[in-house]
Each structure stands twice: as C-alpha cells, then as structure tokens.
Amino acid sequence: MYAFTYERPASQADALKLAQAGGKLLAGGQTLLASMKLRLAAPEQLVDLGAIPELKGIRREGNSIVIGAMTCHADVAESAELRAAISALAALAGGIGDKQVRARGTLGGSVANNDPAADYPAALLALGATVHTTARAIAADDFFQGLFATALEEGELITAVSFPIPKKAAYVKFVQPASLFALIGVFVAQTDGGARVAVTGGGNGVFRHAGLEAALSASFTPDAVAGVATDEGEMSSDLHGSAAYRAHLVGVMAQRAVAQALA
To answer: Is pLDDT of 251 > 80?
Structure first.
C-alpha cells in the first residue's frame, strides 16, 4: 500500500468535515482495502466511519424500515424486525459473501460502491427505497447511474436507507462461485403501485426490467413472466457467462423469485 493517514471520527459531523476536506470514506473496506493492496487506489487520508453510532441500527418508521448506512450485512440478516417486515431483504443480506464479509461489509458501503453485481442495489431499486445523505434524500431510481457510478457528490455521506414495506417480495440469484457475487440476481416486489423488478449482475449496473414489471403488474405469478424476453444486447459477457446465457438467467431467476414471494 501507499502511505496514508488514518482518522476514526466519533461523530457524523466530524466525519463530514474530513470528507469535505478530501478524506476517503472507509465503511466495511471490502472493496477499498483490496483496491489499495493492489495499488489501484491511493487515498492520502482514510476516514473510518466505524465508530459513529448514529450511522448504525435498524428501525421501523411508519410503513418503512430504515437501516443505518454502517449497519453490517450480518445485522441486517439477523434483524427480527426486518425479517417480519421485509424478509426478502434480510435473506438477501444473509446471502452476501461469507461470514467474514457479512461481519465487516455494510449497507452504505455497498450502495455507495455500486458494484454491477452487488445484491443491495437490486433491493433498493425493486423496493423503491430512498437513500438519505448528509445533504438530501435520493430516490433509488435516481441514485444508481451506471458502472460504479452514483448520484453522490464529493464530501456527501450516506446516513441511512429507507425501504417501503412491500406486499410481497423475494430475491433470487445465480451465484458466481468464486466471488459469491450474482452472475444474475433478480429482486421482485409487489407494491401498491404495481410490480417492481430489478436485475443485478447483467450489465453495467443494476436496472429495472420494464417487461417483467408489466407482466407481473398484470398477474403476479411465475407463469406471467415465463415468456418475457430480456435483450441480450444489454447484458455483459465474460468467461463466467455469455450475454445470451445471462439474458436467459434473468427469466429463470425472475420465475423463481416470484414463486418464492408467493410461498
């Protein structure tokens, strides 16, 4: 690694000052530290958010569940309140990486990083979540902007994410065995405004699938999506799977997710 200074602020206000001065925010470090070890990133100052209590926790507010940005995956997975309200989100968190990753990785870190095969972005899009920062509230539909790109401005911290409670929801992914990321992951949600479907792992970033949403809004059943095609031209292709294979997987995972949501 390159030389850097390390700060561990105890308050959100102190962290914001350091971030606005150019400090690089450190959440769980699952991506950043690996990038630093490979010398793909060389921040001059790390700002560790791990000692800020107001950035952690899970609570219900009205018809939404609010999760602090520094809440680790393991706590999301094990939350009794979340399991009762949005069991699909708790199950998603329980399927991220391995035990070590779930113990260190955080919701906010994953959302801010926006890896194109990450699980949480699919949940945010499908559930119509809102990302809360030190400056504003950003709808998930406006937050994710492509490969590792988000609406976050320099010096802006994610403080929490609020998830509206759906009628039914489920997430199913086809796991890439080496990384445990999603080769394709599909999150389906039945909401008061109709069905929402988000796909991760298939391209340059998470996206909503209009065809699947239209089919499920008409009939929220596995059969309804059986004939819905996915444009393979929008899918990525690599040694793990071709674009055509990923496009096929979207339909398969969507059917399984709907069946799981109805179970």
So the answer is: yes
Which among 61, 97, 95, 105 has a CA at the least distance from the CA of 81? 61
- 116 touches 200 (CB < 8 A): yes
Domain coordinates of the chain in residue numbers? 1-48, 168-262
- CATH 3.30.565.10 at 168-262, yes or no: no
Close Cβ partners of 18 (under 8 Å, ≥ 6 residues apart): 7, 9, 45, 47
Rounded to two decimals, the pTM is: 0.95
Least confident stretch, 4-18, 27-41, 205-219: 27-41
Q: With 80 as the cut, is the pLDDT of residue 259 above it?
A: yes
Closest by alpha carbon to 150, among 111, 201, 199?
111
Give the up-direction half-sphere exposure of residue 195: CA atoms within 13 A in the CB hemisphere: 26
Task: Please give the full DSSP string across 55-121, using - where no structure is assigned.
Answer: G--EEEETTEEEEETT-BHHHHHH-HHHHHH-HHHHHHHHTSS-HHHHHH-BHHHHHHH--TT-SHH
pLDDT confidence band for 1 (50 / 70 / 90): low
Crossing angle of helices 243-262 and 210-218, rounded to 10°? 30
Q: Cα(146)–Cα(206) distance, rounded to whole angstroms?
A: 8
Say what the pLDDT of residue 173 is.
Answer: 97
Distance CA(19)–CA(14), nearest Å, equals 9
Topology adopted by domain 1-48:
3.30.43
Tell me the two tokens of residue 47. 């700002």
What is the DSSP secondary structure assignment for residue 223, as one 8-state letter? H
Q: What is the pLDDT of residues 110-158, one digit of tens each?
A: 999 999 999 999 999 999 999 999 999 999 999 999 999 999 999 999 9
Give the Cα-Cα-Cα angle 104, 67, 148 (nearest 5 degrees).
65
